[in-house]
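During the no-cost extension, the postdoctoral fellow (Dr. R.K.) reprocessed legacy sequence entries with the updated structure-token encoder. One reprocessed record is reproduced below for audit purposes.
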Amino acid sequence: MEFVTLSNGVKMPMEGFGVFQVPEAAICEQAVSDALAVGYRLIDTAAAYFNEEAVGMAIKKSGIPREELFITTKLWIQDAGYENAKKAFLTSLDKLGLDYIDLYLIHQPMNDYYGSWRAMEELYEAGKIRAIGVCNFYPERLTDLCLNAKIKPMVNQVELHPFFAQTGAIANMHDFEVIPEAWGPLAEGNHGIFTHPVLTEIGAKYGKTAAQVALRWNTQRGVVIIPKSVHKERMEENLNIWDFKLSDEDMKAIAVLDLGHSEIIDHSFAETAKFLNGWKIHE
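Re-encoded structure tokens follow.
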């Protein structure tokens, strides 16, 4: 496993395990237990995934020393704002059964995220969070926050895969020492990614699958990845990407696949804002 060093000196694994769309408690707990057994140490969850308790149970049962783990969770839109964010953080901490969070993220650039950020800065300074960051912040939103916050975000988790490379957005993150982290690094299975001819042909040179090539491509760009699977053999496959390196020609061939836009979600659309604001995680 390789690590990236955040702007505050905290080391973060470059590959982790995501649990988006695994709300069923028993399935999620087993998946996280399998991921930890396979060797993952970064686990990424969120209040809006409805599985923090299952993640916490798997962590507790694993017996792995807390300092070896890197746990991420996220603040949802409904809980934005200074006071609400503090309450939501404590709720997540309790559900996970932890004393601190390694990385706490604002899940969406909506509602009073400046109030949320002030609360997160205070929690960070109090030692309850080791690193703070955001998700889905496009360059203009990230730039604005970085220029006006006391503490700049350390991570921005956004959609990043061969079909939506976001090269310009990554360059903007680098300007502010923000580490890019990829959700959906396998494009949520779209674009025939698992059998894509370009990725498959490149993988054949290294004895790797198309999925392994796509994951390795992101890490070689300095991007942290959090692929998701409930199948142990796929977890092992996704983690087995650290024993080869793509050539410059491989990287260029993959770069051509970029469509320049998302086919999963576009946060610049009014309908997206309406949909996400309508997603309630509690009464």
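DSSP finds eleven helices and ten strands in the chain. The chain has one domain: 3-277. The remaining legacy entries will be reprocessed before the final report is submitted.
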